[in-house]
Each structure stands twice: as structure tokens, then as C-alpha cells.
Amino acid sequence: MNPAEVSPDRYASQLVEKRAFSEGFKFTAATMPGIAAWGMVAGMAMVKSGLTLWQALGMTMLVFAGSAQLAALPLIAAGAPEWVVFVTALVVNLRFVIFSAVIGPHFAHLPWFKRLWYGYFTADIMMGFFPYRFPAETLHHPAGKVGFYTGICYPNWFAWQGGSVIGILLAGQIPESWGIGFAGTMALLAIMITLTMNLAALAGVVVAAVVAIAAANFPYRLGLLVAVLAGMAAAMLVDLLIDQPAKEKAP
User: Fold this and answer.
1) Nearest Cα residue to 124 out of 58, 54, 26, 204
2) Residue 83 forms part of a structural domain
3) Are the C-beta atoms of 56 and 168 separated by less than 8 Å?
4) Stated pTM of the model
5) 127 shares a domain with 54
């Protein structure tokens, strides 16, 4: 749109959002190869779990939640009851309720359909960056928030879906000896480390890792579900006991 065709205030607002988009993209650019690698692992896992091409493509586009997908796939392959698959995916994704509670109020000024649209793109990486760029003190100052949010979420979505589609299409051609699963795990670890920014996050990571190892032999790989719940509980407890009092004392 030609700047001469819009009001000065609207043009200034658009300029702020464009700059915020660029800022968000710079924040997340280094994580994109890891996101794509992990998406490829998820894509291969869907096909090898018995899903058809179209089922796998539909799952990656509609679910768009790597941890929930990887938790549900072993259950699907093992013929677990549908309610077990559903509840497992639901519990693994409960963290998005927390994400929404933190980030959602910043977009309360938007129409519901826009909030629904942006909500679909919400990912773990957003929770790692958005609250630090826009803390609670900026709640009533919306400038730049949509741009920053989309600058992180849109590239993340394309990286994940690109990797996932490649994994789906090439699942039968990529030999196990390539170690794609191991490479994806290493990429995910690299992303996780960059997002572990406080004691609460560190506690959640450590507890989830310990529980996942201890519960590795649970049937239907439900140890992952237990580990997620334990990690979330540990992070929330540490945030309540340590981080929050520290924030209250800060000037």
C-alpha cells in the first residue's frame, strides 16, 4: 500500500509492526534448522507408525504440536483405545493453557477471529521470547506485539511444516543408518537450552528428564506423559517459591 494512501498514524503503526516482525525473525532465525530437523523426525514417525500419506499430512497441518504427535503415535501404532490417545495428547499440550494465560492478554484488543488465528501458530519457542520482549508491564501497550509474534511464529510454522512434509515424503527412502532421529534429538536439545532462561525452566527440564528416563519402560510410552506432567509441576512450583518472590522484591 502506498504510504500516501493511509493516514500518518496508521502508516507509523505499520512501520512499527514491520520492524517488530524483523526483530522477532532475528530472535528465532538460529533455531529454524533445529525446528526443521525435528519436524522431519515427526514426519517420518507418522509414516512409520502406519498413517497414510494424507493422514500424516493432515495430522501435521491440523495438530501442529510435535510433542503431542510423538506421544500419540506409539499409542496409535500399538492400537491403544482412542480415549487414551486423546487424553495423552491433551495432557501433553496442557502447557499451551499456561502459554495462553501469559500471552493472550496482550492480544485482548484484537477481534476473536484474529486471536484464534494467532493462537494456532503458538509454539514453545514463543513462550521463550515473547514474555521477555513484552513483560506484563507492557500489557496495555500493543505497539509491535503482533509484528514480533508473527515474526517468530510464521517462520517457525514454515520450518516445522517444511521439515515434516519432507520427512513424510522421504520416510521410506531415508535409511536408519543416517541417524535422523538422533540428529533431530540433538537439534531439539539445542533449542531447549537456549529457552532455559530461569530457575523454573531449568527445574522443569531436569525433573522431566529424570522422570522420562525412570519411566522409559512404561507401556505405550506413557512415561513421556508422566515426565511432561512432572516437569510442568516442578517448573510451576519453583516459579511460585523462588522466581515470584524475587520479582516482587525487584524495584
Assistant:
1) 204
2) no
3) yes
4) 0.73
5) yes
